[in-house]
Amino acid sequence: MPTLAEEYDIVKGLLETNPVWKNADHLRHTVYPQIAIAMLGITSFFLLAVAVVQRNAPKHVENREKFIYKTSYQATNFMVNLVFSVLGSYLYITTVENLRDASVEEKALGYDGIYILSYIQLGYNFWAIPVGRYLVNESIMMLLHHVAVIACACTCSMLTVGFGYFTPFMFGVLEISSMPLAMVNAFKDNPSLIQKYPGFYRNIRLIFGVAFLFIRWYLFFPIMLDFLRLMGMAVILFKGSMIVKSLMVVTWIGSSFVLFLQAFWGQLIIKGIIKTLSLGPKNVD
Question: What is the pLDDT of residues 53-110, one digit of tens each?
């Protein structure tokens, strides 16, 4: 394991000997088109979900239009997170070695084959901001989360020294816990389902809580702290364009904010697990 001083010198050397941006042709012919394709695919699935939910939504439901958009948004989130989880896990297992054993150079430069997750994340989060804001009324915290992910994905996929090696975990494996969360939210938005299937709701809450704490606390914290340390060195050492410097700073701040959110949500989840275990299946709300 290199010392902090050695890591600092390696990051400095990489910044001095590599171009700031990835090849312009690569950006034009690979990055931007794949972001556009991701947005088009996600929008198409969302519109299909709207049509299906609109046809099957109960007539008596309160604020039917909001119900249709929110349910369709949740279905789209579930599908996108399923793609992230499967693809990210595959790349993490088959392409990326143990993050703790990888060299600083590997972490900084990454591999071309793993960036597709960044492109899909960019497409999804660019799509999620207007849809979440105007159709679903997402919280400010979630909208800021989307912005933070966009900054991080831009850095990882567009800068040569963007620490893209972390992509499969941060943009893929991390989303595994989001799938049971989508199911929990669907139950919360339809209280009649909780009354009808209290045991299933209780179990899915527990599955989500355990998955969140294992993936987003136990696995995520050391990986994100590693990323923040190396990215912080890059922010300090980079002497070029203020646009790039600002992007790196926003990435660092945004990633720190994401880490804070995991800590904040995690302690709420622990309280929820304790509450769930202390109540019978029919008393979970």
Answer: 999 888 777 788 888 999 999 999 999 999 999 999 998 888 876 666 789 999 999 8
3-state secondary structure the chain: CCCHHHHHHHHHHHHHHCCCECCHHHHHHHHHHHHHHHHHHHHHHHHHHHHHHHHHCCCCCCCHHHHHHHHHHHHHHHHHHHHHHHHHHHHHHHCCCCCCCCCHHHHHHCCHHHCHHHHHHHHHHHHHHHHHHHHHCCCHHHHHHHHHHHHHHHHHHHECCCCHHHHHHHCCHHHHHHHHHHHHHHHHCCHHHHHHCHHHHHHHHHHHHHHHHHHHHHHHHHHHHHHHHHHHHHHHHCCCCHHHHHHHHHHHHHHHHHHHHHHHHHHHHHHHHHHHHHCCHHHCC
11: number of Cβ within 10 Å: 25
pTM assigned to the model: 0.84
**CB-based burial label for 151 (10 Å; 0-12, 13-18, 19+):** buried
